[in-house]
Amino acid sequence: MSMNVTLSREDVVRLCERVEGAQKRAYAIPKLTDEYPGMTMGDGYAVQLELRRRFLEQGHRQVGWKAGLTSKAKMQQMGVSVPSIGFLTDRMARPENSAISTADLVHPRVECEVAFVMKKTLSGPGCTREDVLAATDYVLPAVEIIDSRFSGFKFDLESVVADNGSSARFVGGGRARYAEELDLRTLGVVMEKNGEIVTMGASAAVLGHPAEAIAMLVNILAELGEDLPAGSFVMSGGITEAIAVKPGDSITARFQELGSVSMRFVD
Ligand code: OOG
Ligand code: MG
After folding, report:
1. What is each CA distance from 145 to 99, 110, 171, 250, in whole angstroms?
2. Which atom of ligand 1 is nearest to the CA of 148?
3. For ligand 1, is residue 144 a contact (CB within 6 Å)?
4. 165 lines ligand 1 (CB under 6 A)
5. pLDDT digits over 128-160, tens only?
6. Nearest ligand to the C-alpha atom of residue 165
7. Could you tell me the residue range of the domain that residue 166 belongs to?
8. Ligand 1 pocket check for 238: Cβ under 6 Å
9. Is residue 138 part of a domain?
10. Which of 6, 69, 220, 221 is the most exposed place for a label (fewest CB within 10 A)?
């Protein structure tokens, strides 16, 4: 992947302010490439890192990262072919079984993910699945609530990366397990909405093995001049497609071996 930045610093700041406004005030914006058709992935990440800089300056704390578009189901749903990463902060975390407001979200959708908590710092390039497993403290089930801020779900990878991979909220829970006690390729997951199964899958959907997605994330971080610090919470990407939610919906994600994660949505 080329991380070539073509936008001026001024344009990066403009786009960052646009994305930040859409996230904070929950309104849809046109995809950024409408105005900047030449935007590269490097430009997308420049906007994302500027957004992170502003959030940290405002007192948000980064808790980790997420890999996105790491499963075929997600790539097909989003019409893209390259994985992406985004940062996660303390403000995005919600407790298990909590009521999550949709008033401050644009197009909320939920997806089941395997999350990793790291005990050793990892840096790329050349990070492998084995390196990830050796550096993992434990894994746990998670539900990510993504929120594409682009109108009419019209976007491209550069715009999604600038919008921090649609990151909005996340809920970790269930039962934490040591990765070596599990076969992370064959974990079945079922998502229930209002008591009915809406989608299911197996963890191998994520690049054959979710630790592969974390290795890819570490290698993308290396291209951005960053490492993955010990203690990070990292989500490996949606196993199934994302399911739209609205006020009144309750969601339970059941993971084989890892227990379940539930939440409900309110106005
Ligand atoms: C991009 C976010 C992708 C995942 O797990 O694949 C993602 C989007 O779908 O808007 O978080
Ligand atoms: Mg996700």
Report:
1. 13, 5, 8, 13
2. 10
3. yes
4. yes
5. 999 999 999 999 999 999 999 999 878 899 999
6. 1
7. 9-265
8. yes
9. yes
10. 6
- 7 has pLDDT over 80: yes
Q: What SS3 string covers 196-263?
A: EEEEEEEHHHECCCHHHHHHHHHHHHHHCCCCECCCCEEECCCCCCCEECCCCCEEEEEECCCEEEEE
For the CA of 74, the nearest atom of ligand 1? 6
Q: How close is the Cα of 240 to the center of ligand 2, in Å?
A: 10
Q: Which among 251, 249, 252, 253 is positioned nearest to 266, based on CA atoms?
A: 249
Q: Is the CB of 163 under 6 A from ligand 1?
A: no
- CATH code, domain with 80: 3.90.850.10
Tokens for 138? Answer: 């434990």
Residues 66-110 pLDDT 10s: 999 999 888 888 888 888 999 999 999 999 999 999 999 999 999
Residue 116 DSSP SS3: strand
Ligand 1 contacts CB of residue 237 (under 6 A): yes
- Could you give the number of structural domains in the chain? 1
Q: How far is the CA of 109 from the centre of ligand 2 (A)?
A: 10
Considering the domain boundaries, does residue 214 fall inside one?
yes
CA distance 267 to 100: 8
Residue showing tokens 């071996």 = 257
**Please, are residues 74 and 111 in contact by the beta-carbon 8 Å criterion?**
yes
Ligand nearest to the CA of 170: 2
Q: Measure the N-to-C terminal CA separation of the chain; round to a whole number of Å.
A: 40
Task: Name the pTM for this structure.
Answer: 0.97
The verdict on residue 3 lying in a domain is: no
